[in-house]
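Proteins fold. Shown next:

***
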Amino acid sequence: MSKQFDVVVIGGGPGGYIAAIRAAQLGFNVACIDEWKNDKGGPAPGGTCTNVGCIPSKALLQSSEHFEHANKHFAEHGITATGVKMDVAKMIARKDTVVKQNNDGILYLFKKNKVSFFHGRGSFVKAAEGGYEIKVAGAAEETLTGKQIIIATGSNARALPGTPFDEEQVLSNDGALRVGAVPKKLGLIGSGVIGLEMGSVWRRLGAEVTILEGLPTFLGAVDEQIAKEAKKAFDKQGLKIELGVKVGEIKTSKKGVSIAYTNAKGEAQALDVDKLIVSIGRVPNTIGLNTEAVGLQLDERGAIVVDADCKTNLPGVWAVGDVVRGPMLAHKAEEEGVAVAERIAGQHGHVNFNTIPWVIYTSPEIAWVGRTEQQLKADGVKYKAGSFPFLANGRARALGDTTGMVKMLADAETDEILGVHIVGPQASELISEAVVAMEFKASSEDIARICHAHPSLSEATKEAALAVDKRTLNF
């Protein structure tokens, strides 16, 4: 017999588990279906983010950063550290522990909020009276009926045509997080978030890293001034980044991976590496969802078609996160999940795409919100710009990391903040002030007149705001 629920959520990643919990908090009888498994075959909710994305990558970044500091930077603090070695197996084990803690935390939140969890793959069976019938294919097959369905099935790594992932030599983000030893030579195709973060991890541990990027510009979505500053820092660290390349044949053998490509000048080149990470984007995941059984509309990319409120073409069916339009970011999925749960309850869920922050957790970190200077110029928007280097920030000097700057863009007439772009230490934390300011339509003068703690990195944000109107306090 089918189990009846007010809301059935398919997918337990950031969009799905947050939607399920919020719906339960609003008084609905909720089920969440998720198929991720841990190494013992048990449930591992949290999706790509928790299992093979945001969380494990940050764990490895932290471990590798500690290693690099001990080897290269402790001495300037008067700390003598000799014979520092990295136990890669232990580093990976710590990463796995961090992942499991997050998995268990989600299961705890389900229990606390009375969300019924089903471990398996969810798929549509048919429209049923007052809702939809959903099959759960797990250890034991079950059938659920939900009045409202929220699809949050996420995305999968995009493979190069003709070069599938084997997760041994040709790696997706999944395999990149499970490398058992430091490769002597590591190749990456794609200089986006995953490429730069994973490249940074293994470069710190001793790998010779080469990143091949097809676009002629570095980090094309980032403000040009910020991207150039970041590129200088990565070049100095030893990351070899080639732009404007065209990748050709890729061959694997017992010796490793050979990549044929042409460089920006059109010259034939070859790169031989031990491991190759392919990070050329992600594709919406609707595999096995059986959308055709109910007539759910997909677009040409395979994403589920939704309107501004995340409603699909079917009554009572919603979709959020990577499987729909918009940026493939965990926090975007979370915002949509909360908003949909609230809309089902008759409330007015809120998602502002203009104030969704972006972060690349390299060193230096790169973070931004709002529009870039290039976008403002292209749109014909009159603006003012102000920037302040961390080189002139006392806290950054004390930290020993003065790379980068804060840049602020404001409307030339109203002074409303239109974009904030940061490259430098703790940019991921600093960007939140800009997000709050922009959400409340703040002006650059508002930031300039707010008292910031001294000494702090946030003073660079205040100085950038002051610089918009050609003022400075010169901390």
Summary: DSSP finds 13 helices and 21 strands in the chain. The mean pLDDT is 97. The longest strand covers residues 116-128. The CA atoms of residues 76 and 326 lie 45 Å apart.
